[in-house]
Amino acid sequence: MDERAFYRESETTKPASLNCPYCRTVESYDLRWLLRKKIEQIPRGADERDRAKFAKALSYMVLLDDKVMCKNMRCRKRFDISGIKTTAFV
Ligand SMILES: [Zn+2]
Hints:
This protein is mostly beta strands. The protein contains 1 helix and 6 strands; from the N terminus they run ββαββββ. The strands form 2 sheets. It has a 4-stranded antiparallel β-sheet with strand order 1-2-3-6, with no helix packed on it. A two-stranded antiparallel ribbon has the order 4-5. The protein is rod-shaped and about 60 Å long. The mean pLDDT is 95. Bound molecules: zinc ion.
């Protein structure tokens, strides 16, 4: 059974403080995350192995954005998101 069957996917945004490497301005950016929420009940047709996997499965989210545009009007450069974890358990 595909592990994805254990989760309900949705998108969410969360603010993060990021430091622009060009102008050094720290701003809050709303980053997009893919939220994988574990479903309450194991899907029908699960076998022993699926049950074990399901028991260990945890809700988590994965960062979708990898770049942001600097909010400083005089800079406006795109920079890589760094310094934050790109997956997180929720
Ligand atoms: Zn900047």
